[in-house]
Each structure stands twice: as C-alpha cells, then as structure tokens.
Amino acid sequence: MNTNNHTPDNLITAYKDAPARTVSAGGVTYAFRELGPKGGIPVVFFVHLAATLDNWDPRIIDPIAKNHHVIAFDNRGVGASTGTVPDGIEAMADDAVRFIHALGFDKVDIFSFSLGGMIAQDLVVRHPQLVRKLILTGTGPAGGKNIDKVAGTTYYDTLRATLTRRDPKEFLFFNRNATGKRAAHAFVERLAERTTDRDMPITVRAFQTQLKAIKKWGRSTPADLSKITAPTLIANGDNDRMVPSVLSEDLHRRIKGSELIIYPDSGHGGIFQNHDKFAPTVLEFLAR
C-alpha cells in the first residue's frame, strides 16, 4: 500500500520511461510524454528545429521532473503528431495553446529551446495569462539579426555531418574543439537512452517547412517584448552559430527583469553541455 501521497510508487521521473500519450484538439492528434508529480503548474517543453520527443536531453528533463509535472509534445505535423507543419511561427504558437488547453491547463511554465523559444515568445506576447514563468534558451526575437541565415547554416552542417557519418547536432549545437566534441558525443549518447517506444522521425518536408517559418520570423517586424511580464530566464552558449548569442542579450535587454546566462566555450547547445549547472538554475528559478 502506498502511504506517501506525495510520491506514489509508480511515479515516473525518468524521461526514458515516460509513456507515449496522445490528445486531440482542433482536428489534430498531438503526441506527448509526461512525467513527474501531478498537481501544481506543469512545465511544458517546446522543442527545437527538426526535433521530436526523442530530442530532449534527459539530464535537463529528469532533474526538473523530480518535483515538477513535466510535459513534452510534438507540434502539429512533427513526429507522431498528425496534420501538417505550419509555415509560420504564429500558427505553431496557436497549436501549442490548443494542446495546452486540450490537457485542461490554463496556466503553465514554459521551457523552450531554439525554434521552441520563437514559438514561446509569440505565445506569451499574445496569451500572457497562460504563462507563469518563461525559459528561453538558444533563441532570438522576431526580426533578429541573421536569424534568416539559420537555414544556410543548418544545410551546411547537415552536409558536413552526413559526410562524416555523425549526427548534425554535433556540428550545429557544439563547438568543434576538444570540449565541444566531448560534450557533443555525450549528448548524442544520452538521446539514445530511451530504447522502447521511440518517436517517429521528422519528415524532410516538415523540416523544410520549419526552416521556412524561421526565415519568415527572422525577416518579420520585431515584436513589443516589453509586454512580457512573466519572470523570464534566458540562456545560451557564447558561440551560437545557429541563433547568434548576441540575440540572447537582445532578448534580455527587451524583456524587463529577465535574467541572462551565457555559458563560456559553448555553442547553441550550451545548456546541454552545461546541464549539471543549468538544471539546478532552472529548478531555483521555478521555485522562486
């Protein structure tokens, strides 16, 4: 018999063990995974370009799931979610809102990375009441300098990776020095820890549509980020080749009261390279 109501015996706190679930809203069936203790405000994870549920670093999710209800999901047309990927960030944000409401939540914390951070910014500007706390990592604002060059960098590094039979993320997320290569290798190994019930890979068409949406975001009119009142934590590496690190500083200047962490000697995946420092920082930020 379970005598402790706070931590039921069957509580899942390892992302690799989180069951695959689905919920339908607006004609789309969204694939998601949840873990951690239920109750309280959930932390919803917004994933990056070309990513599915299998792309979240367990060393980031697992520590957060020890005392927070964590939900990761595939946006429309990605992985095991049905429908087609929208070619604009705003429509992706609308889908995220539908997904959150379909699960019955009217207040969430958001943890976002890269493309996910663009979606999160659009969502919070238009639906401020939905977000209690906001975490933006490896991302940049609408109209941000050189965001429209992401596609070129992505194709170049994907080609480099193909030629060397490596995961493109090793090139895109990490510096190609000894520290970066070590971190990249460890990160890719961690992503393989889940062995059963893995997600469907993203299709080439979905990936290309996401790139189109990012390009549009980079060329669009800057949003009024002073509207963001939710406490915001911003993080990146100091050498982000995908979404230039200066854009994290730009977000920090424009979002009142936000906090900024720039990790030295790391790239776009700085939070994954420095997971041992970043996960405790996130927990402290959420608990405040």
UniProtKB/TrEMBL annotation:
Gene Ontology molecular function, alphabetical: hydrolase activity
Annotated InterPro entries: AB_hydrolase, AB_hydrolase_1, AB_hydrolase_fold
Gene3D superfamilies in alphabetical order: alpha/beta hydrolase
Keywords: Hydrolase
Stretches assigned to the AB hydrolase-1 domain: 43-273
PANTHER family assigned to the protein according to its UniProt record, in alphabetical order: AB HYDROLASE-1 DOMAIN-CONTAINING PROTEIN, HYDROLASE, ALPHA/BETA FOLD FAMILY PROTEIN
Full protein name: Putative hydrolase
Originating organism: Rhodococcus wratislaviensis NBRC 100605
